[in-house]
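User: Batch of two.

Assistant: Item 1 of 2:
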Amino acid sequence: MVHMLREESLGAKIAVQDGVLIYYCLQCSYNTPYKWNMKAHKLIHSGERPFVCNVCKKSFNRKGNLKTHLMVHLRDVSQ
C-alpha cells in the first residue's frame, strides 16, 4: 500500500511504500529515500547558496563544492 503525503518545508511529496519513505521533488523528476538528499536537492531550484568562501566571498549550494573551491586559495598560498 502506498500513502502520499506532502512536506511543504522540503517542497516534496513523500510516498510511504512498504514502510520506506520516498521523497519526490515537486519541480522535477528527482526522488530519493533520504531526507537530507532532498534538502540538498531543493537548493538547485531555490537558487540559495548558503555556503560562502571566507576568502573571496564566492557562494555555493553544496558544502562539498565550497571545500573543493577552498583548495584554490590553499594552492595560491603555497606557491
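Item 2 of 2:
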Amino acid sequence: MEPVTFVLFGATGDLAKRKIYPALYNLYIEQKLPPYFHVIGLGRREWTDDIFKSNVEQSIADFSRRKVKDPVLLKSFLNMFQYQTLDIGRQEDYERLLERIEKRENGLSLTPNRMFYLSVGPEFFAPIAANIKGSGLGSAAGWKRLLIEKPFGHDLASARELNQQLSEAFEEHEIFRIDHYLGKPTVQKLVDLHQQHPELQAMWSEREIANVQITANEIVGVEDRAGYYDHSGAVRDMFQNHMLQLLMMVAILPKKVTPEEVPLMKRALMKSLVPLDLQQVGERVIRGQYTAGSIQGKPVQGYTSEPNIAAESLNDTFIAAKLLMEDDYWSGVPFYIRTGKRLKEKSTRIVVEFKPHAADAGSGKPAPRLLVIEMSPQEGISLQFSPDQARHHEQLSPVQLDVHASGQELPEAYENLLHDALLGKPTFFAHWEEVELAWQWVEPVLQAFERNDVPLRTYAAGSYGPAESDALVANDGYHWWFDAKETAADESRVLHPSR
C-alpha cells in the first residue's frame, strides 16, 4: 500500500465523528493503513491541531467498536492528524493547503498520492472538485481519488449535471461513491457465497426461486434531518440508492462472478429492470406516511407533527415496490422492496424464497425454503426450513452458513470501504452508470408522486407500514417474511408470515 495524504472536508461534522475517525482508528490497530499515512482535516471552525486531535480522540472513545487499551498507540494514531481552516469557496485556502501538503511530501520524499473525502453536503461537491483542480491539488504526479457520500443528485437531471461537473476534475475511475450498505461484511460476502457453500449452487441451478424480498425497516423518525428529508422522502433517501444496490448484489448471487466483474454485472442487472410507466407506478408502488403510534411501548407523534415538518406535507416516509427483470435467470421472479421510518423494529434483510417442495406432512401445506441474509441488527446468512416439530407454530428452523470466521468481530462498513478506497479497489462502490440507471428507473415514480397520482397511504408508527404493502405481495400469493407478531398468550417475538 502506497503512502497517501488523506484530505477530509467536513472534518468537524457528525459523519466524521461517528464513522470516519473510528474506522481509521480500527484500520490503524489492524495495521491496514499505508505507511506515512497523514490526515488533514478541513472545516470552517478556527481549530488548532490540538483541538482537532482532542475531538478525534473523543470520537474514538464514543463510537469505536474497539475501546482504547494502549494510550501510547492512541497517541501515535493521533499524531497523524492535522487541521486547517478552509472556506470551500476560497481558492486561496486550497493553494495554502497545497503548500502544506507539498512541504510534507517533499520533506519525506513521498509520492504525492492524495485522497479527498467530501464529508459535506452534496451542494458542495462540484465547487470543491473545481477548486481541487484549479489550485493544483489534483495535478500531482501520484494518484488522486475522490470519495463522496450520497445523495448523488436529486433526480436524473441533477445527477447527470453533478457527474459532468465532477468529471471535469476527476476521471470516473478516480471517483469512489460511497453507499455504506455495500460496506457491510455480509453484503460483501455475497460475491463469493457460492464458492464457500457448494450446496447453494444446486438450489440456484434449479432456478426455482419464487420471489425475493428486500426490507429495511427503521424505528427512528426524521430526527434532526427534517430540512433534507421532507424534500427527499424514502424514495430518494433509501430506495434509489441503498435498496437498489442491495437488489443488484443479491441478483448477482447465481451469476458466479469475480469481484472484478461485479461492477459490470451490476450495470447489466440494472439495465434489465423492467421500467414502469406512470400508470404502472400506481399498480406496483405503495407510498406511505406515518401517523401517531407507539414504538417499544413509547408514544410517538405523526410525521406532520414532527418539528420543522409542515402540517400539510405529502412527503413519503415509506415505500414498497414490486420490480421485475428481463434477464435470462430472473425473468418472471418478482423482487419486492420495502423501506420506511417509524416501523415496528429495526431490521435490514434479504429473503430469497424458493419454490416449495413436498408438502409438510402435518399441515398439508408446502414447506417453505428460504435463504435469509441479515444485515441489521445482526449480520449473518442462513438457510431456513420448516421442520415437522415447528409446524404448529409456523416457525422456521435456521441452518447458519458460516460466512464469517468463528468468533470474528466484524468490521464496520466504513472500515471496509476506506480500506478498499486506499487500495483503489472499486468493487463495493456505486459507479456512475449504476447511479444513472437507478435514477432512470425511479424517475417515473418521482413524477407520479409529485403529481399525487399514487395515493399517500397512512400507517401507524410502530406497525409494518400501510396495509397496501401486504396486499402488494399477497396479490401474487406471497407474504412478507419475519414480521414480528404478538399474541396475548405469548408476547415474545415469534417469526412467522404476516397476515
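Residues 182-411+431-475 form a domain with the Dihydrodipicolinate Reductase; domain 2 fold (CATH 3.30.360.10).
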